[in-house]
Amino acid sequence: MAVLVTGGLGYVGSHSVKQLVERGEHVINLDNLIFGHKQAACGSEVIIGDIGDRALLRDIFSKYDIDAVMHFAALADVPESVADPRKYYDTNVAKSLALLDVMLESDVKMMIFSSSAATFGDPQVVPIPEDHPKNPTNPYGRSKLMLEEILREYERAYGLRAISLRYFNASGADPSGEIGEDHNPEHHLIPIVLQVALGQREQVSIYGTDWPTKDGTCVRDYVHVSDLAQAHLLALDALRNGCQTTEYNLGNGNGYTVMEVVRTAENVTGREIKTVSADRRPGDPAVLVASSEKIVKELGWKPKYPDLETIIETAWKWHSTHPNGYE
Ligand code: UDP
User: Which of 12, 53, 195, 272 is deepest in the core (most CB within 10 A)?
Assistant: First the structure.
């Protein structure tokens, strides 16, 4: 029995693969290497290829006895999705439909899907529960919501069961220091802040200092990537035990402002981190904080690294030992 992981050489994917392999799962890791890193394989069986390649998918499903798919492979750059929505609907929706087609042809009927807090848009209440209205403010969030809705319909029509996991701000790195975050270009706050601490950037631009928050900077719910990985394993177990299609939010329920992240990173690194005020970034909501009670209650999810300081410590361990990422 094997699990097919798509995009398993990327950030959240590789951390999940590591935990799957550690508990003895046979992992087939399909990645096109656009954002993935070969060095992040963590003992999985890597196949280089694209999720839109039906012939390749048919080969994989006929060669291996796959019971479930963890589907991480996607594009995830919000501003790019606004500039080039076609690319996002093609990769995140159309290619996912190809994957689902071949799963159904092969009678593989369980999927864990990487969704996002971007499916909600501007929150009307925080912490945000799963049934909060969905009004994505960009094509990236809409592409993720579309797949969630498609997965609901595929359960009714074809009996394919899926769990969609909506990540809030994935951050940190495996505590071993062996794998971590390596995006190029990097737009996420914590790696950028740590690049300033490393002297690789002069300063961090703060996107808006007049938001209606306690210090005027945006509030986000940072969740450790290894805790996200743990949720994927719990979701796999739940599907194997017969659970029906559903969605779960994944965050810690604690919001931190951008300036709190900078100050915590200064404490962790012992270095000064220079900031400069900049314009608001289009599409940024002021506050995004998850309610994750549903997955805690239903699947027993228990984050091991919920506090911001530990999250940044693990990220710092990775960035300070891999200043140029995987290279
Ligand atoms: N942010 C910032 N400067 C940066 C990068 C991010 O001020 O160089 C802010 C961004 O506006 C948001 C928060 O930090 O409020 C987290 O941004 P990130 O891109 O890490 O994640 P997002 O919340 O957009 O998914």
Answer: 12
Q: What is the largest CA-CA distance in the chain?
A: 56
Condensed to tens digits (0 to 9), the pLDDT of residues 250-289 reads 999 999 999 999 999 999 999 999 999 999 988 788 999 9
What are the residue numbers of the active site? 140
Ligand 1 in reach of 258 Cβ (< 6 A): yes
Long-range contacts of 243-247 (CB under 8 A, 24+ apart): 243/161, 243/163, 244/155, 244/161, 245/151, 245/152, 245/155, 245/161, 245/162, 245/163, 246/163, 246/164, 246/298, 247/115, 247/130, 247/148, 247/163, 247/164, 247/165, 247/166
pTM assigned to the model: 0.98
Q: Does 77 contact ligand 1 (Cβ within 6 A)?
A: no
150 in Cβ contact with 164 (< 8 Å): no
Q: Dihedral sign, CA of 124, 130, 133, 134?
A: positive
Cα of 259 vs centre of ligand 1, distance in Å, is 11
**Where do the DSSP E strands lie in the chain?**
2-6, 26-31, 45-48, 66-71, 110-116, 161-167, 169-171, 204-207, 219-220, 222-224, 246-250, 256-257, 275-278, 287-288
Residue 249: its pLDDT value, please? 98
Element (H or E) spanning 34, and its range? none
Residue 327: pLDDT band with limits 50, 70, 90: confident
